[in-house]
Amino acid sequence: MAGPEITWYLIVSAILFSIGTLGVLLRRSPLIVLLSLEIMLNASNLALISFARLHGGHDGQIFALAVMAVAASEVVVGLGLIVAVSRRRLTLDVDSFRVLRG
Amino acid sequence: MIQGAWLCLFAPLAGAFAITVMGDSITRRTAGWISTLSVFVAFAGAVVSFVGLLGESPGEREHLSTAWTWLSTGSFKIGMTLLVDPLSVLMMLIVTGVGGLIVLYSIGYMDGDPEERRYFAYMSFFVFSMLMLVQAGNFLLLLVGWGLVGLASYLLIGFWHERAEAVAAAKKAFIMNAAGDATMALAFFVLIWQTGTLEFAEAFVGAEGMSSTLLNLVALGLLGGAVAKSAQIPLHTWLPDAMEGPTPVSALIHAATMVTAGVYLIVRAHPLFELAPSIQDLAAGLGALTLLVAGFIALVQTDIKRVIAYSTMSQIGYMFLGVGLGAYGNGMFHLMTHAFFKALLFMAAGLVIHHLAGEQDIRRMGGVRRVMPKTFVAFLVGSLALVGIPPLSGFFSKDAILASALASGGYGQLLFAAGLLGTLLTGLYTFRLFFVVFLGRPSELVLQHAQGSHGRPEEEDASRTHGKTAHGETASHGEGPWTMTVPVAVLTVLAVIGGWLQIPDVWHPFSDWLHDVAEPLVEPSVTQDLVASALAVGLGLVGVGVAWLFYGARSRELPRVAGVRHALEHKLYFDELYDLVFYRPAVWMAGVWRRTIEEPLIGGSITGVSLGARRAGGVLGETQTGYLRSYALAIAAAAAVLVVVFLAVQ
Amino acid sequence: MGNFLVWAVWLVAAFACLGSGIAVVSFTNAFYSALALIGNLGSLAVLFLLASAEFLAAAQVLVYAGAVMVMFLFVIAYLGDTAGLPFRGGGPSWVSVGAVVAATAILVEVVVAIGLKAGNALSSVDEIESSFGSPGEIGRVFLTDHLLAFEITSIVLLIAAVGGVILGTRTRAEDELDAQGAAGQETYGRA
Q1: To bridge B31 with a disulfide, which of B117, B197, B298, B438 should be the other Cys (CB 3.0-4.6 Å)?
Q2: Predicted ipTM beyond 0.85
Q3: Alpha-carbon span B608 to B30, nearest angstrom
Q4: Rounded to 10 degrees, what is the CA torsion of B323, B334, B8, B18?
Q5: pLDDT tens per residue across span B355-411
Q6: Residue B637 and residue C102: Cβ atoms within 8 Å?
Q7: pTM, whole model, 2 decimals?
């Protein structure tokens, strides 16, 4: 194929995935955590597309579409939660949700 | 006949079971009648067996009846086996006959006690256990009966369990009997080891091949059990304390039946004892020692029941003396007559106690004759029989034993002398009791109860005895309800005529009856019989006379030999000795073990386990931080590890 | 020449993707993070195109960058100042260290895995037709080979929609809080 080989796509996907992981684990605002989660999902989408291109089958792309749909649903629910939390005048800080401690 | 024996055994058990199961739904009186009826049915069964045996010729009178095999390991089998032979039928008749009369008497004596049903269930259970003991066809069932009568004794001594003394006495009796049970069990172990069986006949045959040391051990073990159960020295201290139980219990268990089980055991196992003659001599010696010691102690007792208890101990000493020298028939004869007159004495004493609303101290009694003339007669008959005055029953049986002692060589003659001294003592303490209680002017207490005013006395006495109520029948009603007076009357008659079953050299159906079961080792000659009788009666009358001097006419003061009196009042310090030698070391050792082993090791390990679990839980709980980010980190770390795993697996 | 162009476009898109990713994670202002994510999604769409997934590139821009990110921006606007929070402060430090370690570990492992496979399976790219990633092809595969995935995905979307509506309803407690005014903020749980 023209351009870089599949390997390069996969490396980009891996780096993007780790960036997303760092964002999820290091940020305290739930909104930013959701954004980082989106990055992780997109990274895996990229990997799926690349493998579909490699094997010449459509399965990877279908999977990526499904992932996109699920990610969108998850964002809906996550944003709904964040809005509900803020409506109760609670702090939007992931570290302050410690009820499960113990 | 066999069915008669099975009926005899199980009727009292059925009675006890029925009373227990029906509980509160039957009245207390009904419980008493159920119990009495069950024992009389057992008596009927015993009579049937007896008649059946009578019809057979002497050589055939041994029947073993096995209901099922109870225990079977390898070649060792034990069956639920009953033995119907002259000896067991004799004991069955005594136990159920005298027992039935006593249970009937209890209906009147225990009337008004709130826990009557429990009492009667226990009494029926006791009769069953005793029958199991005497009817057992092998040593193991005998041991079962042995243990069960110990249990029944414990339950009945401690019947009034709110009294601390009763509970302590019950424990004491049970523990001392347990020592005897242990020696018996050891003897049985040796028997099984050497002969491989516990059936009577086979064990006796097999025992002939055992070494003399082992035979002595077996006999000693059996003797240990007999000594504990029959309250002979050195295991005798429980019997006086056992008087804490109700008087009918004392009559039945601690006079007529259970305490005679030791004598029965020796007669039943006499082949084993004959193979270990030194142990048999030891038994006779212990009997002689006991009859003297008990006689001396009885001289200074002030509780009416305790005097009679020591008298029982003494008379059983006579029985041990007899069977220890091989006079099995005479020993059993004395067992039977003793059951009659001792139960009579206890029951007559019970009539007095019942009339005086629970008072048992003879120093507060006196002149009871005026108030209870019929009881006076009954007690007199019993006392005369006990001392051995002809033609009452005790005369024939006790003198037969003494004659056998005289005929048994040097050792026997030494014991004969002891036995003669014993008759002097018997006359002395028996009639001391009789004169103090019945003769003279009525004491204050007696007068109070004669007029039927029982407001105050019951309160004073309630602290000393169980709160017995209803002696509703006042003096005008006679000396007690018919349920109490009729058995006393029956036993009075038996105490008179019971001895006429065996008049030496004239007719002896009794010893003939037992001859095939236990052939006596010694047969006294006519001369020896007459000599023994003359000396015994003479000394007995001397004892009565001395008692009259000091207690009857109250003409002389008692000689004060302070040290002796003190020692006798403390029962020769046996209790203190046992306390020092057994009780204190045991308690000390238990304390030591509790501190060094129980608390640190066992208690500590249990708490250690729980503490460790809690600490582990606490540590694991640290992982539940509650931070979302740490949970997410855990997932990420796990993913990292898994990637490595997948790579490695490829 | 064509190859060079492809390479150039690829490099630009890749760097833009990674750069905007780092930007998303680093900005304190949530608005800027969301904008950076839009950039990320755009560059990813370019990469999809280069990998012959045309339909997916279009879907990415339309759905993700178009709808999802707009939703994000609406919420950020609603939340206002409370939306973004920096890294540290509060929470245990070992989480931060562990996070960096874990992320680096994953990256290294995946790169190693790719490296191990390179030269074998990853070098032989299959030949494809020109209509490989076209909507027609995707549609056909969706409705024949992967029909089940299609149906389940639609159910998931339905559930999310219902969930979103439920989460969005106002409760009485919130009305009371509004009535009290926005006086102070409560903290939640045992901090």
Answers
A1: B117
A2: yes
A3: 56
A4: -110
A5: 887 788 888 888 888 888 888 899 999 999 999 888 888 888 888 888 888 888 788
A6: yes
A7: 0.67
